[in-house]
Design goal:
566 residues, alpha+beta, 6-stranded antiparallel β-sheet, binds adenosine-5'-diphosphate, kinase, His_kinase_dom, membrane, histidine kinase
């Protein structure tokens, strides 16, 4: 850490006293940088006093140098360096060279390694990080001056060295110092660069963290993050509100396992092992699970989704659980269903009466024009009744079937025969590939509606000249939907408009109609397939569709022959 770059001390670390060099004030750092030299000189003074006390008396410069180091140490600790331009504190290492010179010159004969003292200011200048090149050059010049000073012409050492022929002795020392200074400077600069990169990475991660925090807190969706040990790591404001709703009456705090959670019906309590967070902590990921939280008037419906998190070794590391309040949506769906059921019911009674009276009227001997008008009125009244019946069916509980022994082959044949005229009128060909008999336990009315609906769609959505095939076959135990029991498979295939994959995905949604059909104004409500799917599922079966735009569609219905309960 360079001296020139103070950083602030995080409060926690300061409290624990774990400060590192860079976290001291500039004055502290200057003093600390001076201390190795000060302590080394103190050691030398002790060694000289014990082993060569004559140095102190014979060489008055020695004590002068020691005094200089002491004075510089005091200055290092006293001067408010932080208030001065950073480079000013270089005065201390530079003056250190001046103080070291007499110490080294006086004690070099008594003690080895005196010249090493100049390594301290050399290092200091090199790692200070202010002007790296100038620092290295000054270190070299300073250490060279110290080393060669005793050998300068006119000094006693010069005379001595002439006698001993050892003028060459200090030649390499400044270069070794230079090498050390370069190494220290390179190391410091690379550490500074690393620190800057780390600082930038830290800043960017802090910014991202703040952004994430803002997004999470602003979100209306409750977010809960739990670590692998089940401890809450994050709970946003929306989730804190939801948590509060779920607390038992009279409580204003409590753990997750105390919350009042119910299944979507709002009354069946969710068993401990099935609770959303418990499930998520077992590593189960799920989407859009509807639950109710709280009781009475305060109860809310939530759509819950969970996603597991994994560490680098792919071990489970916690989970993110998201709670979306769907109370308004649930209320709206319930209100819509109630409205549709009530309105359809209210429409049906007068319509049935209108159709009945038109029937009676048509039995009379009528003027041809009047008969034509009445016929048109009856057709339209019947269409209206069909529409209302569809609406009522969609609102009614389609999951209830009344099963009885049914010959499915006959049921499908009847439906096919009853649309024959209609098919011909539409310019289509209809082929039926049916066995003579196929007995099943099914609801004849609802299965009849399934077949009628698929056939009527095939006719409506196939342009003139196309063909429709209806087939029924029995699937053995292995070929069944779940690999067990025997199944009936009804296939209705047409060469009609077909649909895209995206349209296929929405086909069984209430009121959904493809764009092409809507634009072509082909009559329909978009309820038929949703109702059909409800009926098939109520039989314990499934309905599949494969379709290609402008090529045709194939609807496949499979139901178990032994009825839904088997
Ligand atoms: P409806 O026929 O009253 O519109 P359905 O629920 O029966 O309602 O069908 C929903 C939509 O699915 C239709 O409007 C049509 O766009 C599409 N569809 C259904 N059957 C076919 C088919 N055989 N070929 C092409 N499109 C179809």
């Amino acid at each position: 850490m360079s001296l020139a770059t103070p950083t602030t001390l995080p409060p926690a670390e300061a409290a624990e006293g774990r400060r590192h060099f860079g976290q001291f004030s500039l004055r502290g750092r200057v003093l600390l940088s001076q201390m190795p030299l000060t302590l080394s000189v103190a050691l030398i003074v002790v060694a000289v006093a014990v082993f060569h006390p004559h140095i102190m008396t014979d060489h008055p410069y020695f004590l002068g140098g020691v005094g200089g180091v002491a004075l510089l140490t005091v200055l290092a600790g006293v001067v408010p360096w932080g208030r001065l331009p950073p480079v000013v504190y270089w005065v201390i290492p530079l003056l250190d060279f001046v103080a070291i010179a007499p110490i080294w010159a006086s004690a070099r004969h008594g003690l080895d390694g005196m010249v090493m003292l100049s390594a301290f200011p050399v290092f200091w200048l090199a790692w200070s990080g202010i002007y790296p090149v100038i620092g290295v050059i000054l270190g070299f010049v300073g250490s060279a001056a110290v080393t060669w000073w005793p050998y300068l012409p006119g000094t006693p050492a010069f005379a001595e060295s002439l006698i001993d022929y050892d003028l060459h002795r200090p030649v390499v020392v400044p270069f070794i110092m230079l090498a050390l200074a370069v190494a220290a400077s390179v190391l410091t600069r690379s550490m500074d660069r690393q620190r800057r990169d780390l600082g930038a990475a830290l800043d960017s991660s802090k910014t991202q963290n703040r952004l994430l925090q803002a997004v999470v807190e602003t979100s209306d969706v409750g977010i809960l993050v739990v670590d692998g040990d089940g401890h809450d790591v994050l709970m946003n404001q929306a989730q804190r509100r939801t948590h509060f709703i779920g607390l038992p009456p009279g409580r204003d705090d409590g753990a997750e396992h105390e919350l009042l959670l119910f299944e979507a019906d709002g009354v069946t309590p969710i068993p401990a092992e099935d609770r959303p967070v418990t499930q998520a902590l077992q590593g189960h990921d799920y989407r859009g699970r509807i639950i109710a939280i709280g009781t009475d008037g305060a109860q809310q419906h939530l759509s819950v989704s969970a996603s597991s998190m994994y560490d680098e070794e792919d071990n489970f590391d916690g989970t993110v659980v998201v709670f979306q309040n769907v109370t308004d949506l649930m209320d709206a769906i319930q209100t819509r269903d109630r409205f549709v059921a009530e309105v359809s019911h209210e429409f049906r009674t007068p319509l049935t009466s209108i159709i009945g009276y038109l029937d009676v009227a048509l039995e009379e001997d009528l003027d041809p024009i009047v008969r034509k008008f009445l016929n048109t009125s009856q057709r339209n009244a019947e269409r209206l009744l069909g529409l209302v019946t569809s609406l009522l069916d969609s609102a009614a509980n389609s999951s209830k079937v009344t099963v009885q022994e049914v010959n499915l082959a006959r049921l499908v044949r009847n439906s096919a025969e009853s649309v024959e005229v209609q098919t011909k009128k539409a310019g289509l060909s209809l082929q039926a590939d049916l066995p003579d008999r196929m007995d099943a336990k099914a609801d004849p009315v609802k299965m009849g509606q399934v077949v009628d609906n698929l056939l009527s769609n095939a006719i409506k959505y196939t342009p003139s000249g196309g063909s429709i095939t209806v087939s029924l076959r029995q699937l053995g135990g292995v070929g069944g939907v779940d690999g067990g029991g025997e199944w009936a498979e009804l296939v209705v295939r047409d060469t009609g408009f077909g649909m895209t994959a995206a349209e296929r995905g929405k086909l069984f949604t209430n009121f959904y109609r493809t764009e092409h059909v809507r634009k072509a104004a082909i009559p329909g409500t978009g309820l038929g397939l949703a109702i059909t799917q409800g009926f098939v599922r109520a039989h314990g079966g499934e309905i599949l569709v494969s379709s290609e735009k402008d090529v045709g569609s194939t609807f496949t219905v499979r139901i178990p022959l032994c009825g839904p309960d088997a």
